[in-house]
Q: What sequence folds into this?
């Protein structure tokens, strides 16, 4: 069996698992949790295979560690879907997590695996970066930046920006973060007005920040800015400054999202507290812990129910 055939079978299995996970909650209560559990198990196995592939094919221990962590997380969620099934319980937070995970993974895999889709996003991002650079009059090589032709290599679609010294690839588009915030916003049970407000401060902000991140990387590379800590200006700009900037932007967006949509924070706290479920009970889709058990709290001292603490 060739590598491409093996990866094709792996992806086929994954899509079946994501379908089971994402569509499970549309079925009757006694069926839904079994379907979602199977989806999580398949997703955990998928990342388990990739943890091995990262070590054997790519010799990339960092990605292997992260994928092993993913195996643990999804196996844990599968176990709690099993408990939901055996106890005939329903948790809003787990419903949100299952649908959000399934659609996020499905959309990104479609973009990554279907060349036409990924290629269009890369080309559109490169075109927008070029337009912004020309609009502000930034010419790294002394002449206007022009768009090269879209082509594909081992790393996927790529569009060179002639006159900038770099090319735009899928990782330069910010599409992963935009999909993540958009999808989990959709499935959150909250007021539509607040959800739209959160959307405006997430997806468009990520889009704009990513464009200027690309330009900043071009600027640092063209000016050979190393800050005395690296011999490679592009490596410093891309892997440290660019990723550090993206991380800070995402942290700010997450904080704002939790402020506008506290329901998202409540759901996360419930997922963090699943290991305590035997000490409490599930009521109306929420995990209710006894008074002698301290739930995970937010910075204002509010419990998951949204009630203030009392002594």
A:
């Amino acid at each position: 069996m060739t590598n491409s055939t093996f990866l094709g079978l792996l992806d086929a299995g994954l899509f079946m698992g994501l379908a089971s996970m994402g569509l499970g909650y549309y079925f009757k209560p006694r069926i839904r949790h079994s379907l979602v559990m199977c989806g999580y198990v398949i997703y955990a196995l998928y990342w388990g295979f990739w943890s091995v592939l990262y070590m054997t094919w790519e010799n990339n221990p960092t990605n292997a560690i992260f994928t092993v962590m993913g195996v643990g997380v999804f196996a844990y969620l599968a176990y709690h879907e099993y408990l939901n099934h055996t106890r005939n319980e329903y948790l809003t937070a787990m419903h949100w997590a299952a649908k959000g995970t399934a659609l996020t993974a499905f959309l990104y895999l479609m973009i990554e695996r279907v060349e036409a889709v990924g290629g269009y996003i890369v080309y559109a991002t490169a075109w927008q970066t070029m337009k912004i650079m020309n609009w502000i009059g930034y010419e790294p090589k002394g002449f206007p930046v022009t768009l090269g032709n879209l082509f594909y290599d081992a790393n996927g679609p790529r569009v060179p920006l002639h006159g900038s010294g770099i090319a735009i690839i899928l990782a330069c588009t910010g599409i992963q973060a935009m999909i993540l915030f958009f999808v989990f916003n959709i499935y959150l049970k909250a007021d539509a007005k607040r959800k739209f407000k959160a959307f405006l401060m997430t997806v468009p902000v990520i889009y704009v920040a990513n464009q200027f991140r690309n330009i900043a990387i071009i600027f640092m590379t063209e000016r050979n800015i190393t800050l005395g800590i690296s011999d490679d200006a592009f490596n410093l700009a891309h892997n440290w400054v660019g990723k550090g900037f993206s991380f800070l932007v995402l942290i700010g967006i997450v904080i704002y999202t939790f402020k506008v949509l506290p329901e998202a924070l409540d759901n996360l706290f419930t997922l963090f507290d699943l290991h305590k479920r035997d000490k409490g009970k599930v009521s109306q889709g929420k995990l209710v812990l006894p008074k002698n058990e301290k739930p995970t709290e937010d910075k204002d001292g509010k419990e998951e129910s949204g009630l203030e603490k009392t002594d």
About this structure: The chain has a mean pLDDT of 89. The first strand starts at residue 146 and ends at 147. Strands lie at 146-147, 151-153, 156-162, 166-169, 281-283, 286-288. The radius of gyration is 22 Å.
